[in-house]
Amino acid sequence: MFKYIVKKILMMIPMLLLISFIVYFGLQLTGIDPINFMVSPEMLSSNKENVEALRQSLGLNDPMIVQYFRWLGNCLHGDFGYSLKEGSSIASIIAVRLPYTFELAGYSLIFSAIIGVGIGIISAVRQNGIIDYVGRVLAVLGQAIPQFLVGIILIQIFCIKLGWFPSSNRVSPDATNAALDAFQHLFLPVLTLTIGMVAVLMRYARNTMLDVLNSDYIKTARSKGIPEWKVYLKHGFRNAMKPVLVILVFRIPMLVGGSVVIESVFSYPGIGLTMTNAIVSGDYPVVLVTTLIIAAAMLICSFMVDVLNALLDPRVRLGE
């Protein structure tokens, strides 16, 4: 198992390097010149010699491959550079924004797991009942409607028409109750991400539980006179949760990717909104770092899925 984990970790390194390489050269080909953010238009036209000297001192005249490895080396030493738009350290920007994204994704994951698995199990146990029918309809709608559209609908209803929740930001400057203010700002973004996750987990938990309940060992347990609640909880739920747990972890990368869109819809100051604003403004050093962080988060989540699969099914690691 140790060799399997080490192998997976080593495979992540070239993948992350390849992603950084593609993103770096892709942004270089856009023609964005950092000098335009550092020097006024008047100086660009009147002091071309000084501008060229500045370009030379910053290494912007070096081949792109040299610039890439210089940037990569700086990143490995913890120097992510500076934002062209704000002028502040990218490391300080990430330190402030990244916890907000983790907070949003974490709450969404917890609530979607509790609600989705709970309704899915109840739907399987009470098959063809009211909860089952309603849950199946909601699951189809939750998967069919794009998350950004769900977010816009929630803003229209709860922010504009009812005025119950703020439509943007993470905190209010004049808030007197910090906990209540945080809840109000987080509620709609978390709800938007949760709806899509609940739809997937609900259907998968229901189908998996139905398969387990139709298994021979469940029929044997019932024939021995074991109480029904014990059959559901001890024999059914425990065995149904193994594949559901894999799906839950497998959805984490999609949750991180979805937070980029949701943060833009709600103007939530996380890493996703930071990347979106950087793309719009041409702040490519920020785009590079934020893209690398999101890619690393997705690779780590994929690694967790592989390890979990190997723990639950030894044939996976033996086959490797």
Automatic annotation (TrEMBL):
It is a multi-pass membrane protein. Signal peptide: none annotated. This is Glutathione transport system permease protein gsiC. GO terms for cellular component: plasma membrane. One of its GO terms (biological process) is transmembrane transport. PROSITE patterns: ABC_TM1. Residues 98-305 form the ABC transmembrane type-1 domain. InterPro entries: BPD_transp_1_N, MetI-like, MetI-like_sf. It is found in: Cell membrane. The keyword Glycosyltransferase does not apply. CDD domains: TM_PBP2 (cd06261). The lineage of its organism: Bacteria, Bacillati, Bacillota, Clostridia, Lachnospirales. Belongs to the binding-protein-dependent transport system permease family. Keywords: Cell membrane, Membrane, Transmembrane, Transmembrane helix, Transport. The keyword DNA-binding does not apply. The chain crosses the membrane at residues 104-125, 137-165, 185-205, 244-266, 286-312.
